[in-house]
């Protein structure tokens, strides 16, 4: 078996540098020698992955956080958008949020997951959207894509690097700040072939996994392999209600709140409604790649995951 490991040395606020050498030794003891490379910049993990697959890797291991994983997953797709379905992915999660692995909830240590050899096929999401320069882009995601206040929160979290607050606390602080300043945004949304609905929203999560935001269980019933997104909509409600109920989202207890609706679907088309001065910003596995309009599509069982 040919194994290639993609390592983001910046992930986890130094955790990768501290913990990976010991984990690498353990991995080598179990699976033998493997090739590896460190990422040199944002986006590099996709390039490394694509090249490793082109030159014969059977298993690619992502070492880093959710952002690194997202880039590695995108590297499974060639320039023509074709997925490499014969290659497996494994995750050594050393990020600060690690929401993908939390959603997997295997209860196993990452190296044990890899050496166990068990593989599960999971769905991926693909989103077509516009970047901040107005160029149309396409990107895969393994965990959760969302838009609304979450896009603003990502931009706050990813630009304020406090060495003193863990990501979960930074996310909570950014969420409180962003919610306090946020004004609902009107969107038009069409799920599968249903008639389009328009609504003022605070947030919509298009979920393959369950957790985002460093431990917020936004889609408590989502399954990685059911061929469906769980689409969680938080409609306009008062700021006081938002802030008062915010902590419910960590346990999934927001599910029954009257401002929340959850449904399932395979394809979502969504656009901002005219007359809005502020763009509706996207969040994709914790990164902020652009804005609406966007189309989300599920790719059933597209990825073989060691878990
Ligand atoms: N050499 C590098 N220098 C700077 N940034 C990099 C480098 N390599 C990768 N990156 C970027 O680092 C960012 C953060 O990585 P990642 O999300 O994996 O870690 P994290 O934020 O600690 O974890 P999580 O998303 O789970 O909280 C990603 O956007 C990635 O593009």
From TrEMBL:
<keyword id="KW-0418">Kinase</keyword>
<dbReference type="GO" id="GO:0016301">
    <property type="term" value="F:kinase activity"/>
</dbReference>
<dbReference type="InterPro" id="IPR016064">
    <property type="entry name" value="NAD/diacylglycerol_kinase_sf"/>
</dbReference>
<dbReference type="GO" id="GO:0005524">
    <property type="term" value="F:ATP binding"/>
</dbReference>
<dbReference type="GO" id="GO:0008654">
    <property type="term" value="P:phospholipid biosynthetic process"/>
</dbReference>
<keyword id="KW-0067">ATP-binding</keyword>
<dbReference type="InterPro" id="IPR001206">
    <property type="entry name" value="Diacylglycerol_kinase_cat_dom"/>
</dbReference>
<dbReference type="Pfam" id="PF19279">
    <property type="entry name" value="YegS_C"/>
</dbReference>
<protein>
    <recommendedName>
        <fullName>DAGKc domain-containing protein</fullName>
    </recommendedName>
</protein>
<dbReference type="Pfam" id="PF00781">
    <property type="entry name" value="DAGK_cat"/>
</dbReference>
<keyword id="KW-0808">Transferase</keyword>
<keyword id="KW-0547">Nucleotide-binding</keyword>
<dbReference type="InterPro" id="IPR050187">
    <property type="entry name" value="Lipid_Phosphate_FormReg"/>
</dbReference>
<feature type="domain" description="DAGKc">
    <location>
        <begin position="1"/>
        <end position="131"/>
    </location>
</feature>
<dbReference type="InterPro" id="IPR017438">
    <property type="entry name" value="ATP-NAD_kinase_N"/>
</dbReference>
<dbReference type="InterPro" id="IPR045540">
    <property type="entry name" value="YegS/DAGK_C"/>
</dbReference>
<dbReference type="InterPro" id="IPR005218">
    <property type="entry name" value="Diacylglycerol/lipid_kinase"/>
</dbReference>
């Amino acid at each position: 078996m040919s194994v290639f490991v993609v390592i983001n040395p910046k992930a986890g606020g130094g955790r990768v540098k501290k913990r990976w050498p010991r984990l690498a030794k353990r991995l080598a003891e179990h699976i033998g020698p493997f090739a590896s490379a460190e990422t040199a910049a944002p986006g590099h993990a996709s390039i490394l992955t694509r090249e490793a697959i082109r030159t014969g890797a059977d298993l690619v291991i992502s070492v880093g956080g959710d952002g690194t994983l997202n880039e590695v997953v995108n590297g499974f797709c060639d320039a023509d958008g074709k997925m490499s379905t014969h290659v497996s992915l494994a995750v050594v999660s050393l990020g600060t949020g690690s929401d993908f692995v939390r959603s997997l909830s295997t209860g196993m240590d990452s190296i044990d997951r890899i050496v166990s050899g068990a593989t599960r096929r999971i769905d991926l999401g693909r989103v077509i959207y516009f970047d901040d320069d107005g160029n149309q882009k396409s990107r895969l995601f393994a965990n959760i894509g969302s838009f609304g206040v979450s896009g603003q929160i990502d931009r706050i979290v990813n630009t304020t690097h406090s060495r003193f607050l863990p990501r979960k606390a930074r996310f909570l602080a950014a969420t409180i700040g962003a919610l306090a300043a946020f004004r609902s945004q009107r969107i038009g949304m069409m799920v599968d072939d249903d008639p389009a609905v328009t609504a003022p929203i605070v947030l919509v999560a298009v979920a393959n996994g369950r957790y985002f935001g460093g431990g917020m269980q936004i889609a408590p019933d989502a399954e990685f392999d059911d061929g469906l997104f769980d689409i969680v909509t938080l409609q306009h409600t008062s700021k006081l209600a938002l802030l008062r109920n915010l902590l419910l989202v960590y346990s999934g207890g927001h599910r029954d709140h009257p401002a929340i609706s959850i449904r399932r679907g395979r394809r979502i088309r969504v656009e901002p409604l005219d007359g809005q001065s502020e763009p509706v910003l996207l969040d994709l596995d914790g990164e902020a790649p652009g804005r609406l309009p966007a189309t989300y599509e599920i790719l059933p069982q597209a990825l073989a995951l060691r878990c």
